[in-house]
Structure formats: C-alpha cells, structure tokens
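Try this one yourself first.
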C-alpha cells in the first residue's frame, strides 16, 4: 500500500484530501475554535479496498495532533478507526465517546 500521498487541507471545501489517480479521497469537517468535527469520509469507488481511507484518517489525525486540535468523530469510519487504534483516543473531545 502506498502511504506517501500528500495531505491537503482544502479550507474552502472544509475537507482534508489526497489527490490520487485524478480522484480525491476526502474527510469532510466542520471546524470551531479548537475542535474539529470529522463528519464524512469518502473514497472514490475505484480506489476502495486499497487502504487509502485508513491512511487518510491516519494522516489527518497526525495533522490535527500537531495543531493541538480536539476531534469529534461523527463519521462511522473514523470512529471505527480510532477504536482500532486507541492511541488516537487522546485527541477525542473528552465528553464525546468514540465507541
């Protein structure tokens, strides 16, 4: 699995994205002062099953950690990812469960 895709924060569209084979896998978000609500993950059909969605979540969480943001995972894919990788639970807003 290729893991060196560059993560872009498309602030105009409010999404983190990769540019892959003329496609744009993305995580849509809503941002407040310190918190970011991750609302939807989308990987185009032709790219599914290649681990791109998981790598997109990983890079997005790393970026948010560097920025000191708290995460509210509203997207089921991201919630499952965080539950499988508990080291990321520290980013989840304390009064919101990632279960």
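Now uncover the answer:
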């Amino acid at each position: 699995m290729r893991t060196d895709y560059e993560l872009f924060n498309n602030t105009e569209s409010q999404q983190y994205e990769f540019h892959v084979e003329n496609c744009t896998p993305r995580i849509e978000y809503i941002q407040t002062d310190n918190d970011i609500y991750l609302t939807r993950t989308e990987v185009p059909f032709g790219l599914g099953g290649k681990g791109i969605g998981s790598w997109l979540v990983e890079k997005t969480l790393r970026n948010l950690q560097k920025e000191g943001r708290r995460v509210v995972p509203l997207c089921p894919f991201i919630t499952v990812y965080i539950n499988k990788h508990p080291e990321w639970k520290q980013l989840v807003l304390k009064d919101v469960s990632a279960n």
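Discussion: Helices lie at 52-67, 76-84. The chain has one domain: 8-91.
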